[in-house]
Design goal:
alpha/beta, 7 strands
Length: about 260
């Protein structure tokens, strides 16, 4: 028996990386899973890879999380095809890194649109169902970059905004049986961080070793590390926890 048996979890940006790792964990624990991604073909392919429990289903849905029409259609499809919605993880994200004097308006707007507007639209669409059923879990993805990171004025602002958004939703939705929390990952080994290594002209393994040296546990994180935190925060075991941001960074923010 899994702790998410009979539950439906929606994870955005889940065709790969952290999102897919989280989707795998929820599926392993019994949930039906909706993978929402800008690339519908990739979302469907990812959904087909999940190992599902008895009676559980998975679906891949294409949606631009910055579009209200796309988001409303995606949530409606989740409810129609999977029978409801109980967990939402706002994970979709992009980077457009540059120093401030080189950063364009498009760089700023694109990052804000995906991270902040996307979380707003998905949460707004999901909360209608959560409030009606007096139950729901929202897990938002922030980042250690919320504390400031050179070349990421847009991303850092968006990720700190996620933390304020999380605290406010926790206040508003708590009386209706909805818990809202955030996870702030440190360095996680994904295609996105591998692309950063390539952009810097570094070997992927060397880049990971350099990152590991900057935290007390002396290793980089993996999607499974974030999935473990997400599974806890989205479970009934965490029903007395809301409005919090959990840093999952190997202790990097301590030093």
């Amino acid at each position: 028996m899994g702790r998410f048996d009979g539950r439906v979890a929606v994870i955005t940006g889940a065709a790969r990386g952290i999102g897919f790792g989280v989707a795998q964990r929820f599926a392993q624990e019994g949930a039906s899973v909706a993978i929402v991604d800008l690339d519908e073909a990739a979302a469907a392919e990812a959904a087909a890879k999940l190992t599902l429990g008895e009676g559980a289903k998975a679906v891949g849905i294409g949606a631009n999380v910055g579009s209200a029409a796309d988001v409303d259609a995606a949530i409606s499809r989740v409810v129609d095809e999977l029978g409801g919605i109980h967990v939402l993880m706002n994970n979709a994200g992009i980077t457009r890194d540059n120093l401030l004097f080189k950063m364009t308006e498009d760089d700023w707007d694109l990052v804000m649109n995906v991270h902040l507007k996307g979380a707003f639209l998905l949460s707004k669409a999901a909360q209608q169902h959560f409030v009606a059923q007096k139950y729901g879990k929202i897990v938002n993805v922030s980042s250690t970059s919320a504390l400031g990171n050179r070349g990421q004025a847009n991303y850092s602002a968006a990720k700190m905004g996620i933390q304020g958004f999380t605290r406010t939703l926790a206040i508003e939705l708590g009386p209706y049986g909805v818990n809202v929390n955030a996870i702030a990952p440190g360095f996680i080994a994904t295609e996105m961080t591998d692309a950063t290594a390539a952009r810097l002209g570094l070997d992927v393994e060397d880049f990971r070793k350099l990152s590991a040296e900057h935290n007390p546990v002396r290793r980089v994180g993996f999607p499974e590390d974030i999935a473990s935190a997400a599974a806890f925060l989205a479970s009934d075991e965490a029903s007395y926890i809301t409005g919090q941001t959990l840093y999952v960074d190997g202790g990097a923010t301590l030093v």
